[in-house]
Design brief:
The chain has 307 residues and is mainly alpha-helical. The chain has a domain of 212 residues: MetI-like (MetI-like fold), CATH 1.10.3720. It contains 14 helices and 2 strands, in the order H-E-E-H-H-H-H-H-H-H-H-H-H-H-H-H. The chain has a two-stranded antiparallel sheet with strand order 1-2. The longest helix is centred in the N-terminal third of the chain and has 34 residues.
Length: 307
């Protein structure tokens, strides 16, 4: 056996665990989902090949269109708000002279709270009749909104929940901001640049890769937004249950929190239409992949790199 072959086998042996994991936990499930998306399947019977029927069904599905609208709203609003909030918070923390470690810990702690527990707490805090938030607003003469019980305020309430748990993203941006060379700021100050000019010309271009990372991961996360929307709708409706029954309360109030993953779950586990559910999952995968590629290409074009 030649030395080149031995090196190749050695390299493959190190890569084998990762390759096996990718094949077993990604490629095989993806291939199975693609296959089942072309079938009529309910776990109890043999899959029946139906071709493109599941994909044609998407065009006439009113619940799907509603879930797409809600999910797009979350992507367009939720992702930028979290990124801007995390950048702003990290910039403020870098200016602290004392207690920086305490405040970093304080702002990061909410990110450690399980999403379900945080959502339940938020629903009760923002409860229209008895919640402490509306009680405080009434004390200062402001009539509080219905929050999770209002179609107009339900999604903004989820955004507030996301901002409360912004600590994970804040830590990433904090590390990026602290990594900007101080000499650049000193040179800009000597040239008479104000704080906004220093941020726009030095900080933002330097942390652009982190902004791109936050945008890509944020879009992927929001396209799969499930736990908080499911729990908020169920608790706010006052009819929270477990198992399959919870899906009957998804989207409360009036479908305003009914996201794409909630409809996918409902189709698969309430209606047992797993073939159609797999088609929905493949559609979500394709959209997430396309958005990621577009963001990456736009970032390269913006930075002047060759594609």
């Amino acid at each position: 056996m030649s030395a080149k072959v031995r090196r190749g086998l050695t390299t493959f042996s190190f890569l084998a665990p990762a390759l096996i994991g990718i094949a077993v936990f990604f490629l095989y499930p993806l291939g199975s989902a693609v296959y089942f998306s072309f079938t009529k399947f309910d776990l109890l019977s043999v899959p029946e090949w139906v071709g493109l029927d599941n994909y044609r069904r998407m065009a006439d599905d009113p619940f799907l269109l509603q879930s797409i609208r809600n999910t797009l709203w979350m992507v367009v609003v939720f992702v930028p708000v979290r990124i801007i909030g995390a950048i702003g918070l990290s910039m403020l923390l870098t200016q602290l002279k004392r207690g920086a470690g305490f405040f970093r810990t304080l702002f990061y702690l909410p990110a450690l709270v399980p999403p379900v527990a945080a959502t339940i707490a938020f629903v009760y805090l923002l409860k229209p009749g008895t919640g402490p938030v509306n009680h405080f607003l009434s004390m200062i003469g402001i009539e509080g909104p219905l929050w999770f019980n209002s179609p107009a305020w339900a999604k903004p309430s989820l955004v507030l929940l996301g901002l409360w748990a912004i600590g994970d993203l804040m830590v990433i941006f904090l590390a990026a901001v602290l990594g900007v060379p101080s000499s650049l700021y000193e040179a800009a100050e000597l040239d008479g640049a104000n704080a906004w000019q220093r941020f726009r010309s030095i900080t933002l271009p330097t942390i652009r890769p982190v902004v791109l990372f936050a945008a890509v991961t944020g879009v992927i996360y929001t396209l799969q937004y499930f736990d908080q929307a499911a729990v908020a709708g169920s608790i706010a409706s006052g009819q929270a249950t477990v198992g399959g029954g919870i899906s009957s309360n998804f989207g409360f109030p009036e479908g305003s929190t009914f996201t794409y993953p909630l409809w996918l779950y409902t189709v698969g586990f309430r209606y047992s239409a797993l073939g159609y559910a797999n088609a929905l999952a493949i559609g979500l995968f394709v959209v997430a992949l396309a958005v990621t590629l577009i963001l990456l290409r736009r970032a390269k074009a913006f930075s002047g790199e060759e594609s």
